[in-house]
Amino acid sequence: MTTFFTADTHFFHAGVLRMSARPFADVAEHDEMLIAAWNAVVAPRDEVWHLGDFGMGGTPDRYAAVFKRLRGRKYLVRGNHDKTKTTSLPWHEQHELVSRKIEGQRVIMCHYPMRAWVGAWRGSISLFGHTHGLLPDTSQSCDVGVDRWSYAPVTLEQIRERLAATPDLPEERVRGAALEAEDDGEG
Description:
Layout: E1 3-6, H1 15-19, H2 27-41, E2 47-50, H3 60-69, E3 73-77, H4 84-87, E4 93-95, E5 97-102, E6 105-110, E7 125-128, E8 141-143, E9 154-155, H5 156-164, H6 171-186
Parallel strand pairs: 1-2, 2-3, 3-4, 6-7, 7-8
Antiparallel strand pairs: 1-9, 5-6
């Protein structure tokens, strides 16, 4: 079993094509490609954490049909567009904010990016969506939205590789280190 992460699929949402410059002729092509990309990497017994904005628009029947086609055991961390049509789907779990140990790594998951989070000083990482790639990652935080990952869910190993290539520390750690340096200079 492999654990995957994704966000901001925006099934049925024609406006996201323009908003995020997604290269699809129409929302039907967009949705089919997202389903194909998901199922190309996720096996039936894998877990997928969807960090919000599963869909927008569409009918409850269309939501159910897409959900059924997506492989894996699916978990939802609700986003700002996740209304009843999304939350009524048979997710394994639903949350606003999650802290889990996954593959030995403490992972904090929220739809929204955070400037500070539990365990940042002890190596936890923060995964988020919402910004459609507008905010830069840090060495401990990463946008897992489809706009940043070729429209497919990603593994923790892929995320770790990206984090390792990102030298910037989270803001809380930068400011905390500066305060510690000031305190050390006073003695």
